Amino acid sequence: MSRQLQIMYYVEPDTPALARRAAQYFVEMAGEAVAAQGYARIAISGGSTPRAVFAALADPDQPWRSRMPWDMLDLYWVDERCVSPDDPASNYRMTREALLDHAPLRPEQIHRIEGELEPDEAAARYESELRNNFHLEGAESPRFDLVALGIGGDGHTASIFPHTDAVHEISRLVTANHVPQREAWRVTLTWPVINHARSVFFLAAGEDKASILNEVLTGPCDPERLPSQLIWPASGILTFILDKAAAALLPATDEEGCGVLERER
Fold it and tell me: Mutual orientation of helices 48-58 and 15-37 as an angle, nearest 10°?
């Protein structure tokens, strides 16, 4: 793991502008991957902010739909709740409604976590799919071209919650994680897999994220309590796309809305 981390954060005035910026980022990163290797593998997260981004990507009146290399894209999920795919809480359902029902993706390009199964079985099946699709051997880890994350008010990301087993999981690609705070099970990529991606970025919007973002990005390192601090990509670069309210407590950006922080571990 790189000891130095450059954090790039881009601040937009509101959620619609954030969604447009993030949609552009998705298209740019996918395009770079396709140009380099002929395909793009992207892992996405759930939540209201990603929903707005996915809707922008699928909107035929927006430029990103025509620019996204849909036919060369494989879509994965960072995490999933242990519910059926039709449950209102399902990350897959949200993505299906906002994006999949409107985008030209074939069924074989969509790789969901089967949240309706028992948690350990769902994790094992998803890990097996990753190993097969990425042609992994032994201790190899999949290398996603882009991983999109969110951040919770408690500092969690993916389904790696404070003081849960997933904080300490380093040997698996996917793990079932019991979250006592939510009285629920989740299935999630582990943080070493996320950190192995070529590009990792966070989306966050709203004033309720301002305090936790400031603590995660500028406060002392305490990943047991703030699991988002585990995200330290091997590339040494981590990107945040924020709205003005979420970025309110971070250092001021330049005239183009970009800020930079440096951290060492």
Answer: 60
